[in-house]
């Protein structure tokens, strides 16, 4: 339960110190944890059925660290991009970066060249790990921004021979001291901001260590997560497995309900993470085929709204031992803000350990229970900032150090948090984030298009999805059809960015008092036009 301080009007989660030292580096912590249970299986690649013990993973992460330094000249502060799918080499490579103090910038392996170019122009990596299928896109992106970064195809035989080759000093290796863990970047993940373009979120070593205030029995848990490192859930599941002495099942194959069920049954998975759209697919498949998985106790979900009806259906299939856990988190926070340890309809739960939060009105007034405003949160191990973007970093904090989540919500009298609206204009589809500005830029490429605004509207089939919808103003004397705009966008963007909500030609776009486009009113207009069709 969250506790309310009537004087400050702040809500507080349970106050409890972490069991691991957040002043250490994450690499130092992991290399020592792996040494304690050398023969325990820590990772299984479901695709190749390769099995790695703690001893093997520890040696491979040390070799990766030494080879990164000696062969590639990587040192503390040098960014290493990881545009890779899950594979047996990804975990050890990431952990090697942690040991060196080289921030690992996680990118989606299927990003288009434009996305790669934008993000790598921010972090300017010295080395890029990629797969064979995206090598050309990575190479072209680096060339377009004039970066002479080294590229390693991590799923090649050569990578195994070079990145993980034996090094003479490996047996005596000791992790170096990297400095203040609250100010040292461990990983860089993607997020969105007020500009609607992806930004590089710096996650500190301390942020990765501090959330863990307890561990389960060694060897008890088996974790499954389809996410690649691009998703924050992949980092969280990796840390959970390593800190709890569990076994992590990895795969690069595309998620499907049947395949997920096969893996759960084969490896007796106890914990999975799946966003609500995938959970809906799982529940439908399990119900249709009368499937049960007795080993499964924890189904973690988050990233978008979880319909209460879906939760009830899932819980019915998981009883008596298991249930769904909904978390509310954000990349900048470095972990979970709230978790529904005690489910309550439409709530994301109570505040996580050591988290403080408040509800703030638009005029800056701090509100009490059952009053709606922006959710602002703080944590002892503060967000470092956006890589190379001091202006956005400053905008993200309040003067007294709280993070502006950009979400609208309220606390009830018992300290349960409810998210009622999204202040941000980002669009979510199948758990991908779509920046409206990117689609708007594509639309205005068309001759005759004067202005465009893209907003999201609810998917009637899957409530956690947003459908990208365009409102377009055509210049006088020109003729542009909705069909032409849809076709142009379809040919220019990946599938998940398509205008599934449609295109509407309008005479003008709604604006605020200072002549900026009013996205909230634009969203209402788009929904109204959709209902007329």
TrEMBL record:
Record localization: Peroxisome
GO BP, sorted A to Z: fatty-acyl-CoA biosynthetic process
Domain AMP-binding enzyme C-terminal: 439-516
Domain of life, source organism: Eukaryota
Cellular-component GO terms for this entry: peroxisome
PANTHER family xref list: GH16244P-RELATED (PTHR24096:SF353), LONG-CHAIN-FATTY-ACID--COA LIGASE (PTHR24096)
Protein name, per record: Putative acyl-coa synthetase
């Amino acid at each position: 339960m969250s506790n309310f301080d009537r004087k400050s009007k702040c809500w507080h989660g349970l106050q409890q110190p972490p069991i691991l030292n957040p002043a250490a580096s994450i690499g130092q912590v992991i290399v020592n944890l792996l040494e304690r249970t050398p023969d325990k299986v820590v990772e299984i690649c479901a695709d190749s059925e390769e099995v790695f013990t703690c001893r093997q993973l520890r040696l491979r992460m040390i070799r990766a660290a030494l080879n990164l330094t000696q062969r590639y000249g990587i040192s503390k502060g040098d960014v290493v991009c990881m545009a890779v799918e899950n594979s047996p080499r990804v975990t050890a490579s990431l952990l090697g970066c942690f040991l060196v103090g080289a921030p690992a910038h996680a990118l989606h392996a299927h990003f288009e060249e434009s996305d790669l170019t934008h993000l790598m122009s921010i972090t300017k990596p010295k080395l890029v790990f990629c797969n064979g299928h995206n090598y050309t896109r990575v190479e072209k992106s680096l060339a377009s921004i004039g970066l002479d970064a080294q590229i390693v195809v991590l799923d090649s035989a050569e990578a195994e021979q070079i990145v993980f080759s034996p090094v003479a000093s490996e047996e005596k290796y000791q992790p170096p001291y990297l400095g203040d863990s609250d100010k040292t970047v461990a990983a860089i993940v993607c997020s969105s901001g007020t500009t609607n373009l992806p930004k590089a979120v710096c996650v500190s070593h301390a942020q990765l260590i501090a959330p863990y205030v307890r561990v389960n029995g060694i060897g008890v848990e088996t974790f499954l997560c389809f996410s690649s490192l691009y998703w924050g859930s992949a980092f969280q599941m990796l840390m959970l497995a390593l800190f709890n002495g569990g076994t992590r099942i990895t795969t690069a194959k595309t998620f499907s309900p049947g395949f997920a069920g096969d893996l759960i049954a084969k490896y007796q998975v106890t914990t999975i993470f799946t966003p609500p759209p995938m959970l809906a697919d799982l529940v439908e498949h399990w119900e249709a085929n009368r499937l049960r998985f007795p080993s499964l106790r924890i189904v973690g979900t988050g990233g978008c709204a979880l319909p209460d009806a879906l939760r009830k259906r899932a819980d019915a299939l998981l009883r008596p031992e298991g249930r769904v856990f909904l978390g509310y988190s954000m990349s900048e926070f470095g972990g979970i803000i709230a978790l529904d340890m005690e489910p309550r309809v439409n709530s994301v739960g109570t505040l996580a350990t050591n988290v403080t939060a408040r509800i703030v009105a638009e005029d800056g007034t701090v509100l009490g229970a059952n009053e709606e405003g922006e959710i602002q949160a703080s944590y002892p191990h503060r967000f470092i900032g956006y890589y190379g973007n001091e202006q956005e970093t400053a905008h993200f904090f309040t003067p007294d150090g709280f993070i502006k989540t950009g979400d609208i919500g309220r606390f009830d009298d018992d300290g349960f948090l409810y998210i009622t609206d999204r202040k941000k204009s980002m669009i979510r589809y199948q758990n991908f984030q779509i920046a409206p500005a990117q689609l708007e830029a594509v639309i205005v490429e068309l001759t005759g298009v004067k202005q465009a605004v893209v907003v999201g509207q609810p998917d009637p089939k899957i409530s956690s999805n947003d459908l990208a919808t365009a409102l377009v103003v055509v210049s006088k004397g020109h003729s542009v059809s909705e069909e032409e705009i849809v076709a142009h966008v379809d040919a220019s963007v990946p599938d998940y960015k398509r205008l599934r909500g449609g295109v509407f030609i309008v005479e003008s776009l709604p604006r605020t008092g200072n002549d900026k486009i009013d996205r909230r009113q634009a969203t209402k207009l788009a929904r109204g036009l959709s209902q007329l069709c």
